[in-house]
């Protein structure tokens, strides 16, 4: 199994947006890499929890809701035999979900060495803790690397094309610079087959900015999370010409404690369209996903109803999205309704 790889030999894709005059250039600089390392170190250091520790977590119901949303996305969009790319796969928390969808092949990549090790252990079966189930029914390749810097089309040339790409609770880490955001989307587009699907979840910039503006200072949150912007954003205004590198510190009890970046949704949408990834379905907010719809999906356990108000507030920070790689940049609604 491969471990680690080189960065892009060529430059990032060309920009149609104006560069950020404050310094977010098109190439990764040391500062950007340091931030990516900080994120990687944070996730790498997170140890696997025992079942008891997990159940005692102050955000256990939120974790279950997030897992349920991911299960729904996977059950709705993955098909038997699919070749799957899991970008920022973490510790492999979705492996069982993919197994239930009867996929044919799985490639998981994450920047955090510790997470990939845990993912590998989970996939191979851990004699101590995780061996209560049979082996996974699909072959897998697990790699450690930066999905938002490396040329994955080169690295994964032999594994592609993929039928479905999943990027759960991670795409916002690509938004530290325009180059990284574009690299993330270029990688996804290059690896998906035409008609292939991108499913994902990430924080909703509109909710975060609204909460920031409602807050007295630059921080807001509750008993389970806080978000803090630094003084650069004291006026709480964000220039349309600089939609990258808008950093905040995110703390979520028992889960996250690292820098994250605001992803203005319209910019995400237009950058994705530039590389032929168009919106198919956009679930505005994962907390708003109607349980009644999802009870209809066989094999997806229903877990709502037990979140605390503070956990609900966190759930409302996130959105889920479904996009599709098309053959041409311009799509019309007749085409959209004819597919899948
Ligand atoms: C909140 S966790 C989500 C993990 C997994 N997708 C899930 O839903 O369980 C975010 C993940 O993104 C990964 N990540 C952050 N930046 C990354 C990058 N540049 N390349 C690859 N993975 C990255 C982290 O290491 C972490 O595992």
Description:
The chain is an alpha/beta fold. The protein has a domain at 51-203 and 265-338: Vaccinia Virus protein VP39 (Rossmann fold, 3-Layer(aba) Sandwich), CATH 3.40.50. The chain contains twelve helices and eleven strands. The longest helix is centred in the N-terminal third of the chain and has 18 residues, at 60-77. It starts with 29 loop residues before the first helix and ends with a helix. Mean pLDDT is 84; it is low at 1-27, 292-296 and 333-340. The protein binds S-adenosylmethionine.
SSE layout and pairing:
Elements: H1 30-45, H2 51-55, H3 60-77, E1 83-87, H4 95-100, E2 105-110, H5 113-124, E3 140-144, H6 152-155, E4 162-168, H7 178-191, E5 192-203, H8 205-214, E6 219-221, E7 225-229, E8 247-252, E9 256-261, H9 265-274, E10 277-283, H10 291-294, H11 309-315, E11 318-325, H12 333-338
Low-confidence stretches: 1-27, 292-296, 333-340
Given the helix and strand composition, which structural class is it? alpha/beta
Secondary structure tally, helices:
12
Please write the string of helix (H) and strand (E) elements. HHHEHEHEHEHEHEEEEHEHHEH
Helix content: 25-40%
Strand order of the largest sheet: 3-2-1-4-5-11-10
CATH architecture of the domain at 51-203 and 265-338: 3-Layer(aba) Sandwich
Can you list the ligands bound to this structure? S-adenosylmethionine
Task: Write a concise synopsis of the structure shown.
With 340 residues, the protein is an alpha/beta fold. It has twelve helices and eleven strands.
């Amino acid at each position: 199994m491969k471990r680690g790889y080189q960065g892009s030999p060529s430059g990032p894709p060309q920009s149609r947006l104006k560069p950020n005059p404050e310094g977010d250039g098109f190439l990764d600089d040391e500062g950007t890499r340091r931030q990516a390392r900080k994120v990687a170190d944070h996730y790498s250091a997170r140890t696997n929890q025992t079942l008891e520790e997990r159940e005692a977590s102050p955000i256990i119901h939120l974790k279950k809701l997030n897992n349920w949303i991911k299960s729904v996305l996977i059950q709705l969009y993955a098909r038997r035999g699919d070749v799957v790319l899991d970008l920022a796969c973490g510790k492999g928390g979705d492996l069982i979900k993919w197994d239930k969808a009867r996929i044919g092949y799985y490639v998981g990549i994450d920047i955090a060495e510790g997470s990939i090790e845990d993912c590998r252990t989970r996939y191979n079966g851990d004699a101590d803790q995780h061996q209560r189930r049979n082996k996974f029914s699909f072959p897998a390749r697990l790699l450690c690397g930066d999905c938002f810097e490396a040329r994955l089309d080169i690295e994964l040339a032999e594994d592609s094309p993929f039928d479905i790409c999943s990027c759960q609770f991670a795409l916002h880490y690509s938004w530290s610079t325009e180059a990284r955001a574009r690299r993330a989307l270029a990688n996804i587009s290059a690896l998906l087959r035409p008609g292939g699907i991108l499913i994902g979840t990430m924080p909703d910039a509109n909710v975060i900015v609204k909460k920031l503006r409602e807050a007295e200072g630059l921080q807001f949150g509750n008993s389970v999370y806080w978000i803090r912007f630094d003084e650069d954003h004291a006026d709480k205004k964000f220039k349309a010409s600089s939609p990258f590198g808008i950093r905040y510190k995110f703390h979520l009890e028992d889960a996250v404690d690292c820098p994250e970046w605001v992803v203005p949704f319209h910019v995400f949408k237009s950058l994705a369209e530039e590389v032929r990834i168009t919106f198919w379905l956009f679930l505005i907010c994962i907390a708003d996903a109607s349980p009644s719809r999802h009870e209809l999906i066989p094999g997806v356990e229903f877990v709502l109803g037990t979140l605390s108000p503070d956990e609900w507030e966190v759930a409302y920070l996130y959105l889920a999205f479904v996009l599709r790689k098309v053959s041409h940049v311009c799509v019309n609604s007749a085409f959209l309704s004819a597919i899948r």
